[in-house]
Design a protein that fits this description.
Elements (H helix, E strand, L loop, with lengths): L1 E6 L2 E7 L6 H18 L7 H6 L10 H16 L7 E2 L2 E2 L2 H18 L5 E5 L2 E5 L8 E7 L2 E11 L3 E6 L20 E8 L2 H13 L4 H6 L5 E6 L4 E3 L10
Antiparallel strand pairs: 1-2, 2-5, 3-4, 5-6, 6-9, 7-8, 9-10, 10-11, 11-12
Helix pairs in contact: 1-4, 4-5
Length: 247
């Protein structure tokens, strides 16, 4: 069974191969994403993020999940040498870590319900478990940022996550916390494969903020690989990225 619904401003696709899949399982996942949107969206007036930014809610008084995000953000800032920050111009926006976390949590929800072969894809960031309907590893395509109808690489994944940061879909929305004058215009996309989609997403966001050096940062991380495309269309990949390429 497979469904796509539009939430959090993007298409979210879930496919469950297990014969025990039910419509209720999909409803549970999409209800969870709706909760995340209502809590973390900087565009919804009633979200906790918006209430914090208006001074109506102290960070210390936010919900348990927000506290989890704050801890993850602080950890990411430390691990990336300051290239990740959820504050910009005194505005609180944890979006750079929430999506990957939400996908990972949604996938964990399905796993706890007993499913073993499925994927969750939110806006192109994906967590996979098990195998597809053909009994083979799941494949994820990396788009050409200059022609979104073209897939430049197909990646085979088994119980891992993949996330892409870039400017080609949403324009310039990532900034360099260590140099806010940096236009971040040397690269257009950076795809990261990690142990899970949360890890892939948070490292992809920080690595993109590093510009050309981001792919080398990923190179140095154990159990991570990356594929970078610069503004001239030149691709650079980490040493073992090709191990995942199937086409």
């Amino acid at each position: 069974m497979k469904q796509t619904r539009w939430l959090m401003g993007m298409p979210i696709t879930v496919e469950i191969v297990d014969a025990s899949a039910t419509a209720g399982a999909f409803d549970d996942v999409y209800a969870y994403f709706n909760y995340v949107d209502q809590t973390f969206s900087p565009f919804k007036d009633t979200s906790e993020v918006s209430r914090v930014n208006r001074g109506e809610l102290a960070l210390a008084d936010t919900c348990h999940d927000m506290q989890t995000i704050l801890k993850l953000a602080a950890q990411t800032t430390e691990e990336t040498h300051g290239y990740f920050d959820i504050w910009h111009n005194n505005t609180f926006n944890p979006s750079g870590i929430v999506k990957g976390w939400a996908i990972d949590e949604a996938a964990s929800l399905l796993y706890m319900e007993g499913f073993r072969n499925f994927f969750v894809d939110a806006g192109g960031d994906v967590q996979v478990y098990g195998r597809n309907a053909q009994g083979e590893p799941w494949t994820v395509g990396i788009c050409n940022p200059f022609n979104l109808q073209q897939i430049v690489k197909k990646i085979a994944l088994d119980e891992r996550g993949i996330a892409t940061s870039g400017s080609y879909m949403r324009g310039a929305h990532i900034y360099n916390p260590r140099d806010e004058a940096d236009q971040l215009d040397e690269i257009v996309s950076l795809t990261v494969i990690g142990p899970d989609v949360l890890e892939a997403d948070r490292m992809a966001t920080a690595a993109f903020a590093m510009g050309r050096m981001g792919v080398y940062f990923i190179e140095a991380l154990p159990d991570f690989e990356a594929y970078m495309i610069d503004r001239s269309g030149q691709a650079t990949m980490t040493t073992h990225f090709s191990d995942y390429v199937c086409a």
